[in-house]
């Protein structure tokens, strides 16, 4: 991709093009998702995705913000369940192409839910930054005739409720907000010194459920996936991940598990990777990153045929909690999907909003009506603790 710099933005088509002085000025390396090597490994392991980057600068040419752009072929046929009706309506109204994939330009990380695509340096006017970013995305797309013709829609993802006052600036650029599945988040109590303290905080019913899950999963051997053994088990992990990915309502991109090797090299013990084995056969794995004071669950793999009998997924959720407590962290971000079972271990929903804009004006107006009907799948929120430690606002 070739895009000329402007007075307020610099454009790069690979992480290696970005000078180290920019990373130094932004001071973003302590956030794992904005470490240049993290971004580089995502780029290297996903050649089917076009990665580009915007660095916003002030009048003195000093970097003020960074944003990650990806161009993906979004297969509409991958949309399932509650979204299928909306997909069909969108096709009938010709908002979405009938036979070819939707060419989608995403500002944000396509593989992780949450605010991990835009980094704003300290002491910046965030609304002004969002305005400059929207203008820069327009310049990026419209300055290249081929790209302008290629891109069907622009998506900026994922923002929490607290950020909407800032991100609603995007509405002025004809983006339409819509709600997506929430990130399920667990706030760890400062009194939990170990996993037993967590169990003790639960109501009897949920504590019994947890102990039952440990009993059902007792035969499972949990091992660390290391740089020494990862090559041997990656093919089996990939098969399990693909089963989980195909079960999802939709995916913005298929993650290449080869990336785990690079993440382990980069983050060491701060990248969590564990395999779950039954009779020497891998039946599951978990992955996640310790980012500052939070454990973020990433992708998992599950043998669904054995899941119910051996409580594999439920055990994984408790294991994430035990890891976070042992490492004295403050929160766990369990991500989207399976909201109800995540709420049964204490997680509460953190609403997320995306912004979408169709490149064609008329279709964009139809899209607005279409997106107003998009709602996250409702679920029954569980309250497993004796005292409600986190304020839960009902959807």
From TrEMBL:
Lineage top rank: taxon: Bacteria
Q: Which InterPro entries match?
A: Acyl_CoA_acyltransferase (IPR016181), FemAB-like (IPR007434)
Alphabetical list of Gene3D superfamilies matching this protein: 3.40.630.30
A Pfam short name: FemAB_like
Q: Can you say what this protein is called?
A: GNAT family N-acetyltransferase
What organism is the protein native to?
Answer: Polaribacter sejongensis
Q: Give the taxonomic lineage as stored in the record.
A: Bacteria, Pseudomonadati, Bacteroidota, Flavobacteriia, Flavobacteriales
